[in-house]
User: What shape does this take?
Amino acid sequence: MRINFNVPPSTGKELEYIKQCIDAEKICGDGSFTKKCNKWFEERMKATKCLLTTSCTHATEMAAMLCDIKEGDEVIMPSYTFVSTADAFVLRGAKAVFVDIRPDTMNIDEKKIEEAITEKTRAIVPVHYAGVACEMDTILDIAKRHGLFVIEDAAQGVLASYKGQALGTIGDFGCYSFHETKNYSMGEGGALLIKDAKYIERAEIIREKGTDRSKYYRGQVDKYTWQDAGSSYLPSDMNAAYLYAQLEIADEINNRRLAIWDRYYSELKELEAAGRIELPVIPEGCVHNAHMFYIKTADISERTALKAFMEERGILTVFHYIPLHSAPAGKKYGRFSGEDVYTTRESERLLRLPLYYKLTDEDQSSVIDALKEFYGNR
Ligand SMILES: *Cc1c(COP(=O)(O)O)cnc(C)c1O
Assistant: This one.
């Protein structure tokens, strides 16, 4: 038996849609599937503008450019996140200022943000870990009082919400990921969500190598020229075709993931009640998207033993992240504000269980049984 940690989503329609691109002889960026995806997100998320990108990393780079992040600026973020959150700003010469996380959600501790602000601070980057929202009201209030941008790393937050608002649409910019490990995928890909329409024109230019080609395609100018510094952040329409097949059944995918999540939660509740493990916390007002299911073990040695125990049974589990402030580049490009009370400690206890659209009930039973066996024998 072998149970993978992740299997990328697919619906059966992908090849047909990719073939449509090939038959239409339109495979580069901003073809009909890209437009359909952008429109789907704008309508579903009530976003002013959505631009499909080549990754969430690239969407975040675009946001950093749109905020005019420069050498010497500081950007506040958690240390417990994927490298891209920091990379996008560090590439523009900024310093990453890491703030501790809350142990309940693993999200940035909104109460520790204000003390990290200096005269160099330009932006706050909340990361909605596991598709569970950060405390956005507090974060928006701090940003407003200090004149800072808010860029949501909503890589894991597609179809999740905070007080009724879709994650990615709450701050100035929101960044989604459609990497194969995410809820909806196009292999590699992402999207930038823009709240204020005044940024749309420049975003389109940055995404199209610094040209106004988007305007040209719409017939708004009769030739396109180099307008600004930019890069190539638009994905092939074939990748968008793959993604669109999943968007058509997004609720079905979301419901299946939620059902798997709920079953893990209810079946593992007794282990939590017995004080053996901790389960994820979903605060009031947050609707999550079952991006992941994790448990917390007593400590790192128990986690190592559990991971090996599961692996012996053919079940792959995963942990992450090595906190950025303890990584070589994190030491070079960042600093930790205040004390690391929870970031390292909680990251060492966390173990992610298999959770994907196509996970079968039988396989999930095997995962649950193995966990119960491990704790039953200790
Ligand atoms: C996956 C992920 C990213 C990066 O997404 P890509 O599309 O691979 O660039 C960034 N931040 C977080 C929190 C992620 O989980």
